[in-house]
Write a structure and sequence with these properties.
The chain is mainly α. The protein has one domain (4-79). The chain contains 4 helices and 2 strands. It has helices at residues 4-10, 40-47, 52-68, 74-79, and strands spanning 28-30, 37-39. The chain has a two-stranded antiparallel ribbon. A hairpin with a 6-residue loop joins β1 and β2 (37-39). The radius of gyration is 12 Å and the shape is flat. The protein starts with a helix and ends in a 9-residue tail after the last helix. The structure holds zinc ion (ZN). Zinc ion is lined by residues 15, 17-18, 20, 38-39, 41-42.
Length: 88
């Protein structure tokens, strides 16, 4: 189970929101709404949603608590909702 999020999400080949294809060196980021990898353009749109500040605040607290038991690096997973990353 450890590092599962990396296998499932880190190297997603397309944005789950707009289906733009993502190359391994394209920056992507996780949605605070559904934890799915999305492109940076979709993240910008997500940040404009009126409930984004509340949802993101709630997400980080819940994320840290829930993933701590499952994954060795909950911080890595949770913070990738705010900091873009690449596959490589
Ligand atoms: Zn997108």
């Amino acid at each position: 189970m450890a590092e599962r999020w990396e296998e499932d999400l880190k190297c997603a080949i397309k944005c789950t929101r707009c289906s733009t294809s993502l190359k391994s060196d394209n920056e992507r980021i996780l949605s605070v709404y559904d934890h799915q990898p999305i492109c940076m353009a979709c993240k910008k749109a997500e940040e404009k949603r009126p409930d984004y500040p509340d949802v993101s605040k709630q997400m980080i607290g819940q994320c840290m608590a829930e993933t701590e038991a499952m994954w060795s690096d909950p911080g890595g997973f949770c913070y990738h909702h705010f900091y873009g990353y690449t596959c490589s």
